[in-house]
Design a protein that fits this description.
four-stranded antiparallel sheet, mainly beta, 0% helix, seven-stranded mixed sheet, 52% strand
Length: 116
């Protein structure tokens, strides 16, 4: 069964950090471009970061540049999103998805809430 499971979200104070994980099962992650996106209440889902299948190329949205870093461990079939200096506007449900020329898999999301 193909599955992507995000974890690592939670409640954190402004300025704090989190590391989100996205673990794949039922398929081989190294063949896929991995993306992170987020959706805040009442807003559309927005792109956050992307990493190439071999991890050699990454990019991120302007709103998170310098604070969010994505990485991957293909041996563990897992992708990570390191989030630093969290702000209230980062509060959202964070999703990962795996894209190839043939498939596009999504996880159920992990909630990140930034509040003092």
């Amino acid at each position: 069964q193909v599955q992507l499971v995000e974890s690592g979200g939670g409640l954190v104070q402004p300025g704090g950090s989190l590391r989100l994980s996205c673990a794949a099962s039922g398929f081989t992650l190294r063949q896929y471009t991995m993306k992170w996106s987020r959706q805040a209440p009442g807003k559309e889902r927005e792109f956050v970061a992307r990493i190439a299948p071999n991890g050699g190329l990454t990019n991120s949205a302007d709103s998170v540049k310098g604070r969010f870093t994505t990485s991957r461990d293909n041996a563990k079939n897992t992708v990570y999103l390191q989030i630093n200096n969290l702000k209230a506007e980062d509060t959202a449900l964070y999703y990962c998805n795996a894209e190839s020329g043939y498939n596009n898999y999504w996880g159920q999301g992990t909630q990140v809430t930034v509040s003092s």
